[in-house]
Design a protein that fits this description.
This protein has 13 helices and 19 strands. It has helices spanning 34-43, 63-69, 73-76, 89-100, 149-167, 187-193, 205-208, 213-226, 278-304, 310-322, 380-387, 400-409, 447-472, and strands at 2-6, 9-13, 48-53, 58-61, 109-116, 122-133, 139-148, 172-177, 182-185, 209-211, 233-241, 244-258, 267-276, 328-334, 349-354, 364-365, 391-394, 416-426, 429-439. The strands form 4 sheets. The chain has a 6-stranded antiparallel β-sheet, sandwiched between helices. A 6-stranded antiparallel β-sheet has the order 16-15-14-19-18-17, with helices on both faces. The chain has a 5-stranded antiparallel β-sheet with strand order 4-3-7-6-5. β12 (244-258) and β13 form a beta hairpin.
């Protein structure tokens, strides 16, 4: 309940008791509800408020002040200062002096005091006080707004946290509005998106990311409707850069933002926090891939050891290597004596084994007739045999029809767009070439793939060398 003091008397303002004269807060004789409005405004404040006249007598006291200290407006209004009831007697002179000094000081003054509650407890409050001036411009009193220090500190911490997140955070922070458009972007997020902080605001996410937009928008929509997920989500996106699109993995957390002023939660948007974990994920993927491939090599060696025919052992190595690595594979052996390492003699290759081009199945031994494969000059397999080194080939950005022609011209299955040829070497001789082929659904062969292909080629070459040795006997 609020109270006001006018003309030397103390009056308590209630909801049905308008002011009786034209003092502070009155709206005039034609507006009897003016004092009710003043009481409602004072009682609706989130901060505690009290006011003093020029003599230091309490003139106003709102409900928040009553909540904090326990003293009602009827008990507070009309008292001179805080001495003996809201402040310890020993502290009263200092507290009142600092409060009333605001009448003769410009602007607002901030102080911290220990006030006494009605039940005898003590509360540390932070006050903001300023002068109240009369019609003649001279100081007529002081108003004082105060709140518990811990509540003020909590607010300041929240503000400081927000400022730190948007300035100094080591991860990206983006506030997305209910229309899924960025409303605030911190410096780290702007760098990750490759765009300025202000130029990203209000733009659709599809303009900021080249890939991964659907997954991100789905997550944001879910958070708006259902709330935040229980754990961070890892999302692969593609960011546009000056060097082209770059795939990044962002570990993302989401928070639904709701207005604290609404009676029911009204979603204001989503707080999206993310951290780039691309290198970590790539390292994990590579480690997992290496473990799988090492396991495949081990299994292939165990299975090949049970083959009586060394040529069959070579196809066993090929079949185990194909899993998760390529769509098709070929083994071409050198026709006639192994070529010289100086590259002077032409190389002719005979198809020895190939994976089925239709339904999946084990590799089939072919080339019993010994007819050379019709490879054109400069074919990757011929280059591999002549150089005794690994060769990669790609169809590039051709259309589907041209990619099909590119594959058929190289005597490869029509759906292949990536090729990797590894030389088969044993006892210092080139015995042939193993070719791994991938379709458009797979990525091009990288250096780590070439290393694995060379390991497989070494095992196949050993089996072929053994096959020639046993045949010659």
């Amino acid at each position: 309940m609020s109270a006001s003091r006018r003309s030397g008397t103390t009056d308590e303002l209630g909801p049905d008791e308008p002011e009786r004269d034209g003092g502070a807060g009155a709206s005039g004789p034609d507006d009897p509800g003016g004092s009710d409005l003043l009481a409602a405004l004072l009682d609706g404040m989130d901060a505690a408020l009290c006011a003093f006249d020029a003599d230091g007598v309490v003139t106003h006291w709102n409900r928040e002040a009553e909540r904090i200290l326990g003293w009602t407006a009827a008990e507070a209004v009309g008292r001179r200062g805080f001495a003996g009831w809201a402040v310890r007697s020993a502290d009263a002179e200092e507290v009142e002096g600092r409060l009333l000094s605001a009448m003769h000081a410009p602007g607002r003054q901030v102080h911290e005091f220990a006030l006494v509650t009605k039940d005898g407890g003590r509360v540390l409050v932070r006050t903001q006080s300023a002068a109240v001036r009369g019609p003649d411009g001279k100081p007529a009193g002081v108003y004082c707004a105060f709140s518990e220090v811990h509540a003020q500190i909590d607010l300041e911490r929240s503000i400081a946290l927000s400022e730190a997140l948007f300035e100094d955070a080591a991860w990206g922070v983006v506030l997305v509005d209910a229309d899924l458009r960025p409303a605030v972007v911190n410096a780290h997020a702007a760098r990750a998106l490759g765009i300025g902080r202000t130029s990203a605001l209000g733009r659709p996410l599809g303009e900021l990311l080249a890939q991964g937009v659907e997954e991100l928008e789905g997550a944001l929509t879910h958070v708006l409707a259902e709330g935040p997920p229980p754990a961070p989500a890892e999302m692969w996106v593609a960011v546009r850069t000056a060097e082209g699109e770059q795939r990044r993995c962002w570990r993302s957390g989401f928070l639904r933002l709701a207005s604290p002023l609404a009676e029911e939660p009204v979603p204001l948007g989503v707080g999206w926090l993310f951290q780039d974990v691309t290198e970590v994920k790539q390292g994990e993927q590579e480690a997992s891939l290496l473990r799988f491939r090492a396991n495949q090599l081990h299994r292939a060696a165990r299975a090949a050891a049970e083959c009586e025919d060394p040529a069959e052992a070579a196809t066993v190595h090929l079949d185990f290597a194909l899993a998760g690595f390529a769509d098709h594979a070929l083994i071409d052996r050198v026709a006639g004596p192994p070529p010289a390492d100086d590259g002077t003699a032409p190389v002719r290759l005979v198809r020895m084994a190939a994976t089925p081009s239709g339904a999946p199945g084990p590799s089939l031994l072919t080339g019993a007739a010994g007819l050379p494969v019709r490879y054109e000059e400069g074919h990757p397999a011929l280059q591999c045999a002549e150089r005794a080194g690994t060769v990669r080939a790609d169809a590039g950005t051709m259309s589907a029809d041209r990619a099909r022609e590119w594959a058929l011209a190289r005597q490869w299955p029509a759906d292949c767009v990536h090729g990797l040829c590894a030389v088969l070497r044993s006892r210092g001789r080139t015995l042939g070439v193993v070719t791994f082929l991938r379709g458009a659904a797979r990525a091009r062969f990288e250096r780590i793939d070439a290393t694995y292909a060379e390991d497989v080629a070494a095992r196949i070459a050993t089996a072929l060398d053994l096959a020639e040795t046993t045949r010659d006997r």
